[in-house]
Write a structure and sequence with these properties.
- It is a single chain.
- The chain has 27 helices and 33 strands.
- It is an alpha+beta fold and about 1000 residues long.
- Among the domains are: about 200 residues, no CATH class; about 150 residues, no CATH class; about 120 residues, no CATH class; about 140 residues, no CATH class.
- Strands 29-30-28-31-15-14-32-13-33 form a nine-stranded mixed beta sheet. Strands 1, 2, 3, 8, 9, 10, 11 and 12 form an eight-stranded mixed beta sheet that branches. Strands 16, 18, 19, 21, 24 and 27 form a six-stranded antiparallel beta sheet that branches.
- Strand 18 and strand 19 form a beta hairpin.
- Helix 9 runs parallel beside helix 12.
- One of its GO terms (cellular component) is plasma membrane.
- It is found in: Cell membrane.
- It is a multi-pass membrane protein.
């Protein structure tokens, strides 16, 4: 009992130092406990984020059949057999739809839909929600097809009559009254997600003039099924609730999902399961976190143990007199050891629960600050075992710290002889240095798997190596300066070198400071680079502040809708995307609006000035566009050198939006001057002149030739300016077939075509309102035989290959990443219309918008007939990237570096406080021998400069240099690594250096005050 009282009194008398021992032990245990706690919380976070990435309907379970009622029973029975799957799914949403052609004054097509709850997600502007055998139509349908409240609308199935059996009577199609008129609400409402509803804008119709109308809603499933010869499609969508997917349930969840996926369908009910792919991706993220977090946290734990070792050694050394008295009184080695380490062991025991609570608190703080919503901290046996291990490590550090003083002789204790470094310490340092160098070699020269494993451990090894070398260098410099100062009579330098050189504690403190500064500098550098890469990746993956994926039939429909919503061109842009396969890979084709690109898009690695230059380089215009309309075309031409076996003729090639080029017959060629004419019919939007042609007689493969001079073009009696006398405005078709030749020349008389042909193919001269080669921005290798080609042919938006030229080669393009072609979309639409037409089957239509765009842009797009099916956000993507596995590991590194620096500075201040009394005695003794106070102050300044300056330089160099070495081995954004840019992108490194400067200045002031100006 008396021993405990003595220990408690000792703690009380040395309260400040005792508090520091508790603090260090608490931090060491908390850092250790963080490993399992943070690993599990981070794994749960990436799991939640990964499964929440796709739309809930896509990530969940969808069942499709032809009957809704029976399907519900079958699906419910299957989900009862998979309870874990059922627990992560939300309330089901039923839908049944039938394609119909409303029989009214104008040809139209739409879908008769029953979807429970639809009225709650629409705005009813007139009438009421429909019941059985009743209809509710949109206000746009009222305007488009002239149907009103109370009208009876007959609904034949689309293609129903064509499917009747020969000899069977025609079906009797039902008629239903219109009892309500609705207005589209928010098409981005999750209720409408993935439905593709609301495509009935005034500009949306089929080629034969059939108008597409919005969905016709009814009140019961039986109404939808009552359409004779219809083909109803029923679906039940179970949205995923990401917060319900828990890490501990994943193994059983995978088993049940695999069982469902293997079945694929039950009794004519087809299943689509999106969660399986997300879980596989999440498992890779979890593995990356499990591998990186312990490697990041372990250096902090070891550093805490070492600082604790230094603190206990300093505190025990300060009790030399007490220990010497104990030995004089005959205490055994065991008794002396208990007396010496009793205080720190009791303090460490007190720190154990505090460390556990601190670890839990820090993990909770991280969960609330940057982990996914709904992530909780679970304390299990791994955290308790790791905490117990950290406790034993702290105890071992305390015992080792007191060992030298306890084993010292009574004379050495009373004379305060400094402990000398032994050969064993040199051997240990040599072993550590060898291991660090071997690990670095393995990191730089090893395989990808080994590099990934060592990538997070390497900074600690580099920091440790730098600390050992700096400590040794400081001792060597001090010993070299001592005789030199004696010879030159420099008293302050002599005293400072003697103080640093004779105390091994100085070398240990320098090593700790160097390690801490290297870790902090490395963490700040790597986080700075990763921040720049997250910004770069978000720009490449999203491309704008907001991206709306929309339903449309062709590019000009989206472009026109955007132009009506944003006539200024400053907040929105229509974009067409195609994934084109090439060489066992895919090339992303991004068709932007070059005039709006600067204002709307987010470019990776480019400034606004550079983006403006790119937009200018994408200009595809050449000669002015010649717009045509319905009317009589007349061409005045002179024909010479006509050679033909069967009659050749003159034609004009025109193009229309969304259609393939067509030829207008103008009459047979005849020698001499003549007027050739033909009738042109264009859609209301107009036509465009694409070229002139010498037409061969069908099947005529005999050689033929002609020289035709086009003198003038007229449409409806009005002249057309087709640049007939402008050099370069007309060109041959590229590539020209081997059986044809064409020479084009211009002069004041007009355009001269000198042609020959030995096949039945027509010979076409193209009007050059677009350049010969389409300008593109290329990311990655060229999709051509030569990956470095600057010009090649590749199908962009059309069905035929387009000749293109690379005007800029970049690492990444917006929304396309590192293997893409970006071009001016409207220009490429025009090109496709002059060749084989648009390849709309493979197109995805998007609207990019800035944050300044209207908040209801989705609703406005739906009102224009391009309903939104998915929305993506740049800010949400940045948040997601900041919660990915690499970012979570690097955040822990940043925290570890900051804590390491604070611990090292505390150890430095504590050492100053412990040594202050006898250092003051030394100063008074030196003053008595005649040493001036100015020399003592100079000594203190030089000593502080050596103890603080060497670690600063070595730590910063080791941190930044280590970052440069290991950056290629560390995933900065995604676990796959991918294309990474190694440059600073923010203020983290400068901020850490500024923090370091402030901390060191503060530490220097504290040192001077603690030691009363003696140091």
């Amino acid at each position: 009992m008396s021993g405990l009282i003595v220990t408690l009194r000792g703690i009380r008398s040395r309260f400040g130092r005792s508090t520091l021992v508790v603090l260090l032990s608490t931090v060491a245990i908390a850092a250790a406990v963080l490993v399992p706690l943070y690993s599990r919380a981070a794994a749960q976070s990436v799991l939640t984020d990964t499964v929440a990435g796709p739309p809930p309907i896509v990530a969940g379970l969808t069942a499709r059949s032809t009957e809704l009622q029976d399907m519900s029973t079958k699906v419910d029975a299957r989900l009862k057999a998979t309870p874990i799957v059922a627990s992560v799914l939300g309330s089901p949403q039923d839908t049944i739809a039938n394609s119909v052609d409303p029989a009214i004054k104008q040809k139209s097509r739409g879908r008769l839909v029953y979807r429970p709850g639809a009225c709650e997600h629409l705005t009813i502007v007139e009438g009421r929600c429909p019941g059985e055998n009743e209809l509710m139509i949109s206000d746009r349908t009222v305007e488009r097809i002239d149907v009103h409240m109370g009208d009876l609308v007959r609904l034949p199935a689309t293609g129903g009559s064509s499917r009747t059996t020969i000899g069977a009577p025609p079906p009797k199609n039902p008629s239903f009254p219109v009892v309500g008129i609705y207005r589209i609400g928010d098409p981005t409402d999750p209720y409408w997600e993935t439905t593709g509803f609301f495509g009935g804008s005034e500009f949306n119709e089929y080629g034969d003039g059939t108008k597409i109308v919005d969905e016709l809603f009814t009140g019961t499933e039986s109404t939808v099924r009552s359409i004779p010869l219809g083909r109803p499609v029923a679906s039940i969508e179970y949205p995923l609730v990401p917060e319900r997917v828990r890490l501990g349930d994943v193994p059983e969840l995978l088993r049940e999902l695999n069982a469902l996926s293997a079945a694929n369908s039950i009794e004519d009910v087809a299943f689509t399961i999106g969660l399986l792919d997300s879980l596989r991706v999440a498992d890779r993220q979890r593995s990356a976190i499990t591998a990186s977090v312990p490697t990041v946290a372990l250096p902090l734990v070891v550093l805490c143990w070492f600082v604790l070792f230094l603190v206990v050694a300093a505190v025990t050394d300060d009790r030399r007199a007490e220990i010497a008295v104990g030995k004089l009184r005959g205490l055994s080695l065991g008794g002396i050891t208990r007396f010496a380490v009793g205080e720190p062991l009791l303090l460490i025991a007190l720190a154990a629960p505090l460390g556990l609570l601190l670890g839990i608190g820090l993990t909770n703080l991280a969960a609330g600050a940057f982990l996914a919503p709904g992530v909780d901290v679970q304390v299990g046996w791994p955290a308790l075992l790791v905490g117990l291990g950290a406790l034993f490590g702290a105890v071992a550090a305390a015992v080792l710290g007191a060992r030298e003083t306890v084993r010292a002789s009574i004379g050495a204790l009373l004379r305060r002889v400094p402990h000398r470094a032994r050969r064993r310490a040199l051997v240990v340092e040599a072993i550590v240095a060898a291991l660090a160098l071997a690990a670095l070699y393995q990191l730089l020269a090893g395989s990808d798997g080994q590099s990934a494993t060592l990538g997070y451990a390497a900074p600690a090894l580099i920091a440790l190596l730098a600390g050992l070398l700096t400590a040794r260098l400081l001792g060597l410099v001090a010993r070299r300066r001592l005789p030199r100062a004696v010879r030159r009579g420099r008293l302050p330098t002599l005293l400072a070198a003697a103080q640093v050189g004779r105390r091994p504690e100085s070398a240990r403190l320098v090593a700790v400071l160097t390690v801490a500064l290297a870790l902090l500098t490395f963490a700040a550098t790597i986080w700075d680079v990763s921040s720049a890469n997250r910004l770069r990746t978000a720009n490449a993956e999203i491309g704008a502040d907001r991206v709306y994926v929309v339903n449309a039939t062709e590019p000009n429909q989206v472009r026109a809708a955007v132009a009506r919503i944003d006539p200024t061109g400053q907040v929105a842009m229509a974009v067409t995307r195609v994934k084109q396969s090439y060489n066992l890979d895919y090339v992303d084709l991004i068709g932007v609006d070059a005039e709006r690109m600067l204002a709307v898009s987010r470019w990776p690695d480019k400034s606004p000035e550079q983006v403006a230059a790119v937009a200018k380089s994408l200009d595809d215009a050449s000669a002015p566009t010649v717009t045509l309309k319905t009317g009589r075309v007349q061409v005045r031409a002179t024909v010479r050198a006509l050679q033909q076996k069967r009659p050749m003729s003159l034609g004009m090639v025109v193009g229309e939006p969304g259609a393939a080029p067509r030829s207008i017959y103008l009459g047979p060629l005849k020698s001499g001057s003549a007027t050739y004419s033909g009738d042109l019919t264009c859609a209301p939007a107009g036509c465009r002149l694409l070229g002139l042609q010498v037409r061969r007689y069908p099947g005529d493969n005999e050689p033929g030739a002609a020289t035709v001079t086009i003198e003038s073009l007229e449409l409806g009696g009005a002249p057309l300016d087709a640049a007939l006398s402008v050099p370069g405005a007309w060109r041959p078709t590229e590539p020209l077939p081997a059986t044809q030749t064409m020479n084009i020349s211009t002069d004041d008389s007009g355009l001269t075509l000198d042609v020959t042909g030995a096949s039945s193919m027509d010979i076409v001269a193209q009007y050059g309102d677009v350049s010969a080669e389409a300008p593109v921005v290329l990311a990655g290798p060229a999709p051509a035989d030569d990956p470095e080609a600057g010009s090649f042919s590749f199908p962009l938006l059309g069905r035929a290959p387009d000749p293109v030229k690379v005007v800029d080669h970049v690492d990444l393009v917006p929304r396309g990443g590192g293997n893409a072609l970006l071009f001016d979309g409207p220009a490429m639409v025009d090109r496709a219309e002059r060749s084989a037409g648009l390849n709309t089957d493979q197109m995805t239509f998007e609207v990019w918008a800035t944050d300044a765009a209207p908040a209801d842009l989705g609703a406005r797009l739906a009102a224009e007939g391009v309903p939104v099916v998915r929305t993506e956000s740049w800010s949400a993507q940045m948040t997601q990237l900041g919660r990915a596995a690499p970012a979570l590991a690097l955040r822990l590194y940043l925290f570890s570096g900051l804590v390491a620096l604070l611990l090292a500075l505390l150890a430095l201040v504590l050492d100053a406080g412990i040594t202050a009394p006898w250092r003051r005695e030394q100063a008074r003794g030196l003053r008595l021998t005649g040493v001036p106070a100015k020399a003592l102050r100079a000594m203190a300044n030089r000593e502080n400069l050596m103890v603080l300056g060497y670690p600063v330089v070595a730590g910063v160099v080791a941190g930044v240099g280590g970052a440069a070495l290991v950056l290629p081995a560390i995933a900065l954004v995604s676990i796959d690594g991918g294309d990474q840019a190694y440059r600073l992108g923010g203020w983290w490194l400068l901020g850490s250096l500024l923090f370091l400067l402030v901390a060191l200045v503060g530490a220097g002031l504290v040192l001077r005050r603690v030691r009363g100006g003696a140091r």
